[in-house]
Amino acid sequence: MSSRALLTVYATAVAAATLAAAVNLRADPNRYGYSDRVEKHMLPAVSTGPLDPAWSPDGKWIAFSMRGDIWKVPAAGGEAIALTQGPAYYFEPAWSPDGKRVAFSMDSSGNLDIGIVDSNGGDIHRITTDTDVDVEPVWSRDGRSVYFVSGRGRVRGERFTIYRHDLAANTDAPVAEGIQPAVSPNGKELAYVAPVRGRLGSGGLWVRSLDDTSAAPTLVQYDETEYRMKPAWSPDGTAIYYVSDDAGSNDVMVVPAEGGNPERLTIDDHDEYAPSPSPDGTRIAFVSNRTGPTTLHIANAGGGRLSSWHQVEITSRRPRVATGRIRVRVLDEHGRPSPARIYLVASDGRSYAPDGGFHRVMSATETHYFETTGDFDVEVPAGRTSVEAVHGPEYRPRMVSLEVAAGRTAHATVKLTRLLDLPSLGWYSGDTHIHDLHQGRFGLTHWTFFDELRAEDLHMTWALIHMDGTRLMGRWSDLTGRPSPLSTPDYILQYAEEFRGSLGHMELLGISRFVLPLTAGVGGTAYAQPVLDQTYIDSAHAQGGIAGFPHPYYRPPTTPERAASTLIPVDVALGRGDYYDVASLWSDELGSTELYYRLLNCGFRLPATAGTDNFSDVWRDPPPGSDRTYVHVKGRLTTASWIQGLKAQHTFATTGPLVMLRAQGKEPGDAIALSASAPRALHVHATAQSIAPMAKLDIIVNGVVAATVAASTDSSRLAFDDTVAVPEGGWVAARVTGPKSRYVGDDYAFAQTSPVYIVRGGHRFTSPNDAKFLSDAIVALEKRVERGPWRTEAEHEAFTASLEKAKAVYDAIASASATPGQPTR
Questions:
Q1: Least trusted range by pLDDT, from 6-20, 138-152, 447-461, 770-784
Q2: CATH number for the segment(s) 1-30+658-763
């Protein structure tokens, strides 16, 4: 699908029968099928500030990407001149050795390829057309070839290959496995980034011969980076510049080309990226995110602190097309300025964001967006521009169209109206799993992060601090056990912890002290041994907090072996774990609910929740609250009241649809006690409303669909009001599914309520089949951890003893459920 088609206004008049037939519910969060790290950190970004600077061979210009185009600006600063124009997006410029051409990567028709343009601008010559990712171009020293990185031919996971494109022959040949190539000044060696066996991160800095392809590459420097190293040779070939976050922030470093001791050149608490040395070797250009959007700087080749840097000022822009401006105000239902998410599509089919704003894209739908506090001003190509404002799932999206004249400003007001006012009913949305800082190149502050939350109408946000490898993602000082000072009576931000074990992760909410270590089962570290979650759950409870299961399963747990990828069956059997995120960006909702239903069918009671697990400073990610938990709060909204409502299981999880359930007048989390002779059917009332199309509303009884309401002409509202048979007791819940939508940040529309529990004749419903499945999952877990690595055999035995204890719980349930006279599934 083309970029323009992906950015076109979503068609609302869709027949429900078509929706129901077309729904393909499958979690596929990565556009190119790569891991989340590649998707979020390696692929190039559209930005409102300069990225990936490249010094021209004569030293007069610096090229960079910005606003979807390639630009050049005098090295001393001044007017930036665009070399490209829409409808494609352009990134990662690289000058030819003679300075006459610039190579770049480009997103055209939904595919990343390599192109070339004259250094004064003009028509694009596209040199790759492969359907896989082609990025990160650099020139050979004779100007006859372009090296680039491609995902074509990959055999597993994240593997990329560096290719050489012969311009005359129009052929591509593989050179080495790796990313971020840099050709030495003499043209005989290639520096690049590739994995280092047994070490964490995206890889170390290697150098290999281009003349002797049989020679083994040399490891120059290992660094645990997230695709940020981006090496560049010094002009004399004696040293290599690169980026490292060893000091706690990304900094420009330099190391001898043959290896040795690296030196930190940019001494700053913020992040610096993409070093480019001047042709004479006296200076380096780079970008910094210390002000939020990236800014372009030059420093002496010896480096130094901020006071010694020179910012390259962009005093004006000269695009290749005529432009005007739009000024838009977003109002809420009371006529007050309202923060919102904005979808903007200009006349060239591209999306733009305000200067200094954060341009982002949702991978699931390729929808570009930015967030505003209520008023914004954007430069766009002349012609018709559409602007759509979205303010969470409780407001109807509103679109306006503006005709923009060259050199003029068009004005518009967008007034939002409510679909539902759930806070007036005591229901408040929250997100159990958000990350604010995760190696994104935009300099996200507390304030800009909080503005994102308000724009998404997210009332309770849990921002989780965690360790990725050995790198802290977040700030140690943010965990206080109290709401952020930015919080208001309507919007609360509070920091918490994510424990990341090799057998699943845990969210620890409402805590005031970290439970350490933050990781377990990480090879190549002192914490390689798998550990039980119980210590973390118990520690959270001791602090008055709660602990839950995020993104339960990356792959649907259709077999016991797949269910054994986490400790969830063990934790729940042993009475631990306070909630279960049925919806998350990095797990499949329908797959996750299947395991959730099995746990409920073993008599355990867990609220259904949702946490996005997005990276709020990363350009290629959905907004906070894309997967959110609604909690029925008693009294005013506070951290404590929201947690209390969650513990009472008065919840539903959603990627967008708003679903309300009553069974015999009881809400989710409530229990109904019936005599053995009571009627076998219960009255169930469920409604679902959504700004995104829905396909159907299911009433689930003990994990089985008992009734379905399919969408008809109106896919925005579904309702069920009838009786359903619950002859053995158990539980009743409501579930909604629907197709992909520009209004859904996850892969498809989905909502799931917590159950209403039914106890008939004093007996809880249990299923021997589900108990046997979970018992088998623990057997598979034992096999998974058999080889550890274990520090001592005593620790291995203690771990196994907990697994055996949990298995005995499921075996007892299976045995009791199969006893004559007891209900079975």
A1: 6-20
A2: 2.60.40.10
Q: Has residue 334 got a pLDDT over 80?
A: yes
Half-sphere exposure of 559 (CA within 13 A, CB side): 4
To 10 degrees, what angle do helices 793-817 and 768-785 make?
Answer: 170
Is the pLDDT at 362 greater than 60? The verdict is: yes
Max Cα–Cα distance, the chain, nearest Å: 91
H-run or E-run covering 758:
strand 756-760
pLDDT for 34 equals 59
Reading the block at residue 24, the tokens are: 């393909």
Two tokens, residue 712: 């008809």
pLDDT, averaged across the chain: 93
Looking at domain 424-654, its CATH superfamily turns out to be: Metal-dependent hydrolases (3.20.20.140)
Give the Cα separation of 16 and 23 in Å (integer): 11
* H or E, element range at 785: helix 768-785
Nearest Cα neighbor of 506 from 546, 463, 453 is: 546
Residues in contact with 341: Cβ distance below 8 Å, sequence separation at least 6, in sequence order: 369, 370, 371, 389, 390, 391, 455, 456, 623
- Whole-angstrom distance, CA of residue 508 vs CA of residue 252: 35
Q: Pick 341 or 363 by higher pLDDT.
A: 341
> Per-residue pLDDT tens for 185-216?
999 999 999 999 999 999 999 999 999 988 99
| Backbone CA torsion sign across 616, 291, 289, 446 | negative
The predicted pLDDT at position 814 comes to 96
Q: Label residue 2 by pLDDT band (50, 70, 90).
A: very low
The Cα–Cα gap between 88 and 7 comes to: 12
- Give the Å distances, CA to CA, from 290 to 270, 287, 554, 643: 5, 9, 35, 35
Instruction: For residues 672 and 663, give the distance between their C-alpha atoms in angstroms, rounded to a whole number.
Output: 9
Which structure tokens are listed for 373? 């506090």
Round to whole Å and give the CA distance between 527 and 760: 47
Whole-model pTM: value is 0.94
For residue 144, is pLDDT > 60?
Answer: yes
Class of domain 321-418 as given by CATH: mainly beta
**In what helix (H) or strand (E) does residue 645 lie, and over which residues does it extend?**
helix 639-647
The length of the chain, given as a count of residues: 825
Q: Provide the 3-class DSSP secondary structure of residue 288.
A: strand
Helix axes 768-785 and 589-600, enclosed angle (nearest 10) = 110
DSSP letter at 40 equals I
Fold of 36-317: Neuraminidase (2.120.10)
Q: Quickly list DSSP for 71-93.
A: EEEETT-EEEEES--SSSEEEEE
**For residue 524, pLDDT beyond 80:** yes
Domains 1-30+658-763 and 321-418 share a fold: yes
> Looking at the predicted structure, is the pLDDT value of residue 33 above 80?
no
Q: What is the pLDDT of residue 795?
A: 95
> How far, rounded to the nearest angstrom, does the alpha carbon of residue 403 sit from its chain's CA centroid?
34
Taking the C-alpha atoms of residue 163 and residue 757, their distance in angstroms, rounded to an integer, is 59
The domains of the chain are located at 1-30+658-763, 36-317, 321-418, 424-654, 770-817
Q: How far apart are the first and last CA of the chain?
A: 45
Distance CA 97, CA 432 (A): 51
